[in-house]
Design a protein that fits this description.
Length: about 300
């Protein structure tokens, strides 16, 4: 009976992984549609405000969860700035200037930068030959796609969009490192809601002072549909599914979404937005994803050695 419950939980974990992989992949396309009409900062602030209210309201009024402590507020503020203000906003902004596929590929590089940050600043990751090859391939794949795009249309907007996407990916990586090294006793869904709310307030203030707010009445139906999709499927359902999959599946399995997201984004962008799937994009994606896999594999293999060796 206990084994059947475990199998049931595992199957739900795989379902959650599929949901995360698909919907997070499609959110790149929805964001691309919305930023063609409204500013990226307004899009990110509206999305995080509505999604954050959904999470926080559920825990405050239904679960009767108390407000975070002062220590938790500090932790939430750091996480909201790294993961939602910079990572989410800048990656959304970058999509205004680069293709959906390239943006998704750059976003998928975060496991590589996490390893580099841990190795350079904390000396806690061992860089093996396999890790180095993975790092090289992951970065080389994106550079290959980028240069192919430059040859087709050389402009500063492309470089600016690439820079925004890279900074967003690095911010997400820093947030991941901070999360691992500074854990706090708070429900992850509740914490996600507060991070979204805090980030939306910060983004609203920035957008107001930089005059990047379009009147609500002038926002088209298509953009509101994209925002609604981002809130329901990209922020609420996907985050719930992601956290659930990490609890029910081994890390090596639950992290597979990082390989699937870019593929989903590229295919859906080609279907809905007419973005061309070029040979350079296909090869660049393949090389990048192989690099990410090699880095993840080498790191997990090294961690297994650390755990096993003392027992021998």
């Amino acid at each position: 009976m206990q084994q059947s419950f475990r199998l049931k939980d595992t199957s739900k974990g795989y379902l959650a992984l599929v949901i995360t992989s698909f919907f997070w992949g499609t959110t790149w396309v929805a964001s691309k549609i919305a930023v063609q009409e409204i500013s990226s900062i307004q899009l990110a602030s509206i999305r995080q405000l509505i999604a954050g209210l959904c999470f926080v309201s559920y825990f405050l009024f239904y679960k009767k969860t108390p407000l975070p402590t002062s220590k938790q507020w500090r932790w939430l503020m750091v996480m909201s700035i790294l993961m939602f203000v910079f990572a989410n906003w800048l990656s959304t902004w970058g999509l205004k200037y680069i293709s959906t596929g390239l943006g998704a590929l750059i976003g998928s590089l975060y496991p590589l930068s996490v390893v580099l940050i841990e190795w350079i600043f904390f000396k806690s990751k061992k860089i093996t030959i396999l890790t180095f090859i993975g790092l090289f391939l992951g970065i080389a794949g994106v550079i290959f796609v980028f240069y192919s795009s430059m040859f087709a249309q050389i402009n500063y907007a492309l470089i600016f969009g690439l820079s925004l996407s890279v900074f967003a990916m690095l911010s997400w990586s820093l947030g991941t490192v901070f999360l691992v090294r500074n854990k706090t006793n708070i429900n992850p869904y509740y914490a996600t809601g507060w991070q979204m709310l805090l980030s939306s307030c910060i983004l609203f203030i920035i957008s107001f002072f930089t005059n990047q707010v379009k009147p609500i009445a002038l926002i088209s139906f298509n953009v509101w549909a994209a925002i609604l999709y981002l809130v329901i499927f990209g922020s609420v359902i996907s985050f719930v599914a992601f956290i659930y999959s990490t609890k029910k599946l081994p890390p090596a399995i639950s992290s597979l979404y990082a390989y699937i997201n870019p593929i989903v984004a590229i295919i859906v962008a080609a279907i809905l937005l007419g973005e061309k799937i070029s040979v350079s994009l296909i090869w660049g994606a393949i090389v990048t994803l192989i690099g990410i896999f090699l880095v993840n594999y080498s790191v997990k293999k090294d961690e297994e050695k650390v755990i096993v060796e003392p027992e021998i």
